[in-house]
Design a protein that fits this description.
The chain has about 200 residues and is an alpha/beta fold. The chain has a single domain, classed as fumarase. About 25% of the residues lie in helices and about 25% in strands. A five-stranded mixed barrel has the order 2-3-4-5-7. Strand 6 and strand 7 form a beta hairpin. The longest helix has 12 residues. It is globular, with a radius of gyration of 16 Å. It starts with a helix and ends in a 7-residue tail after the last helix.
């Protein structure tokens, strides 16, 4: 029995955050808070970000309106028969740092992955009123069960790094950076606690 399954009750009574996010729900999020996401989000890893920014460079319209949306850094594995999606664990977020400020300027409200963000991204989040969440690393199969629907929306040539629209339910995440500029990783480091313990 996995640790996550044994501790399922940890996720049963979390504050529920509907997606897409509203200004009110964004303001209610605080660094260190464990929340349960439900609704629609979009996926994107390195290739999706590169292709989105290439479209912007060419003055073309993006395949989706990112305003108010959450972009999850994930490249899901192929779904097995009878499953909605394969393993859907988070990708290391710093790989998207060079692209993120540009997308935040378009109104992207939140990003989600694993690991800390650069100072530039953190400043851009403050400037544009966005937050950063962390999904549970190493729990791709568990998180896949929270995905109720998956639809390819752009960049099929990128394979698992294509952009998908996911419908999620009871998807657990930790707020890392909130609208006030607080950073959970810094908070726990200052308290002498490892974020993973």
């Amino acid at each position: 029995m996995s640790l996550l399954r044994a501790n399922q009750s940890l996720f049963d009574n979390l504050p529920r955050v509907p997606l897409p996010l509203t200004r009110e729900s964004l303001a209610s999020l605080h660094a260190g808070q464990l929340v349960s996401l439900g609704g629609t989000l979009y996926t994107g890893r390195d290739q999706t970000h590169r292709l989105l920014c290439a479209l912007l460079d060419e003055g073309k319209e993006l395949p989706v309106d990112l305003a108010g949306q959450l972009l999850y850094y994930v490249g899901p594995s192929p779904a097995r028969p009878g499953r909605v999606i394969g393993a859907a664990g988070p990708t290391t977020s710093y790989r998207m740092d060079s692209y993120t400020p540009r997308l935040l300027a378009l109104g992207l409200s939140a990003t989600m992955g694993k690991g800390a963000r650069s100072a530039e991204v953190r400043q851009a989040m403050l400037t544009h009123g966005a937050v950063y969440l962390a999904a549970i690393g190493g729990a791709g199969a568990f998180l896949a069960k929270c995905v109720k629907k998956a639809e390819l929306v752009a960049f099929p040539e990128a394979g698992p790094e294509a952009m998908f629209r996911l419908e999620v339910e009871d998807f657990p995440a930790v707020v890392i950076n909130d609208l006030a500029g607080n950073d959970y990783y810094e908070m726990v480091a200052g308290a002498g606690i490892s974020p993973g313990k």
